[in-house]
Design a protein that fits this description.
alpha/beta, N Utilization Substance Protein A, Chain:P, domain 4, GMP Synthetase, Chain A, domain 3, four-stranded mixed β-sheet, 39% helix
């Protein structure tokens, strides 16, 4: 049967990889729809499709009736015509007549061809979606064939994948015609073809690279517990070992660093911190702060937050460039982290006015009501401002400041000019300095 629709079927069989049974159902469905549209009924029609040759035959079963009794040419055949085909036929017999596809008319055939192409296209789109959805999280290699402002288009076998700007690494250079590796991050349904989204910026890409380079990870001897990444700059990855004899960090680094170097090369020199995972949040946070080495980690179970005490000369490493190290450590552990310098952590608490025994209660109340709650507030303000705020006389304001000064400096620490002034002051300033206890 030579017609545009048969030729289209032959071409589809050559180009598309569609399940044979599904394809047969589609073909038969399209032709039954075409028959129903022409004749109003397709119950007495059979469509036989030879999938190996791409041939289609349509048969219409008709009952043999007397010429005078013919009422429906679609379901009945006059005896005179039946005898011309086979002289053994008689009234009441059934004959399957081969229908010439050209009888359907050019317009109907073209419509059927379009319907067939559309259904095949829908099946093909569904196959692509299912195939790549099953491969989600897999590393693939393709060739860059188009680069524009929003995305990169990559050839993957017979299909095309996209790498949006958000999935690219900001400091990598992409060249048309070059091979590129990435992870299948997502498959999206669209009105056209499914969109296969490939990523080089996703944390999962680093995970898959380590699985390729570290056999112990692939064999589940070492488990990746978490990955935090700012693509192009730094990645923190936490690992644990299910075999006590194997050091998870050492296995990921490899002999002379060969394993981690392979990952770093693929990532264009991106820094990677490999952390030994711990179930203890304080230990985990301490390790995650690398390259800084906290002196102390205080974890609050109620707020699920941690404070890390860092040597003053390491605070910049703890925070990192633009806060990157701190962000990645918090993301990796899932714990908000606040860094504090060692000097700030060990500094004494501010002296509250209410704790100064040398001042009577009335003076304390008057100072607090004026907004001076700590000794630092008063010493920073100076005697004149204290006098104005509290309505004390200037002499009394100075007496208060002298009392508070004894909590912070000794007479031996004063400059010569300050010692002379103190000698002329009231005896209050000569009282022994209270001992200050600093708790680390």
């Amino acid at each position: 049967m030579n017609s545009p629709i048969v030729e289209a079927i032959g071409q589809i069989l050559q180009d598309k990889s569609i399940d044979r049974d599904v394809f047969r159902e589609i073909i038969e469905g399209v032709f039954h729809a075409m028959i129903k549209k022409k004749y109003g009924n397709a119950e007495n029609f059979d469509v036989i499709f030879n999938i190996d040759k791409g041939d289609i035959e349509i048969f219409c079963e008709k009952e043999i009736v007397d010429d005078d009794d013919l009422t429906d040419p679609v379901t009945q055949m006059p005896l005179s015509r039946a005898l011309k085909i086979d002289d053994d036929l008689d009234i009441g017999d059934t004959y399957a007549e081969l229908v010439n596809i050209e009888e359907f008319g050019r317009r109907l055939v073209m419509t059927a061809r379009q319907n067939l192409t559309q259904k095949i296209r829908e099946i093909e789109k569904e196959n692509i979606f299912n195939e790549f959805s099953a491969r989600q999280g897999e590393i693939v290699t393709g060739e860059i064939h188009q680069i524009n402002r929003k995305e990169i288009r990559i050839h993957l076998d017979r299909y095309e994948a996209l790498m949006p700007k958000s999935e690219q690494v900001y400091n990598e250079k992409y060249v048309r015609g070059k091979a590129i590796r990435g992870i299948i991050k997502e498959v999206r349904r669209t009105t056209k073809d499914p969109e296969v989204i490939v990523s080089r910026a996703a944390p999962g890409f680093v995970t898959r690279l380590f699985e390729l380079e570290v056999p112990e990870i692939f064999d589940n001897i070492i488990e990746i517990m978490g990955v935090a990444r700012e693509a192009g700059d730094r990645t923190k990855i936490a690992v644990r070992s299910h075999d006590k004899r194997i050091d998870p960090v050492g296995a990921c680094v490899g002999m002379k660093g060969i394993r981690i170097q392979a990952v770093v090369r693929e990532l264009g020199g991106e820094k990677i911190d490999i952390i030994h995972w711990s179930a203890d949040p304080e230990i985990y946070v301490k390790r995650a702060m690398s390259p800084a080495t906290p002196l102390l980690v205080v974890y609050d179970q109620e707020s699920h937050a941690a404070t890390v005490v860092v040597p003053d000369d390491q605070i910049q490493f703890a925070i990192g460039k633009r806060g990157q190290n701190l962000r990645l450590a918090s993301e990796l552990t899932g714990i908000p982290i606040e860094p504090i310098k060692e000097s700030e952590y060990l500094a004494p608490e501010p002296l509250q006015i209410s704790e100064v025994n040398e001042l009577d209660d009335a003076t304390k109340s008057r100072l607090i009501e004026a907004g001076f709650e700590t000794a630092d507030d008063i010493l920073d303000a100076g005697d004149l401002k204290v006098m104005e705020a509290t309505k004390f006389e200037l002499g009394r304001a100075r007496e208060i400041m002298e009392i508070l000064n004894t909590y912070f400096v000794t007479d031996e620490e004063l400059a010569p000019s300050e010692k002379k002034d103190n000698a002329e002051s009231s005896s209050t300033a000569q009282q022994p300095q209270p001992e200050t206890k600093i708790e680390g």
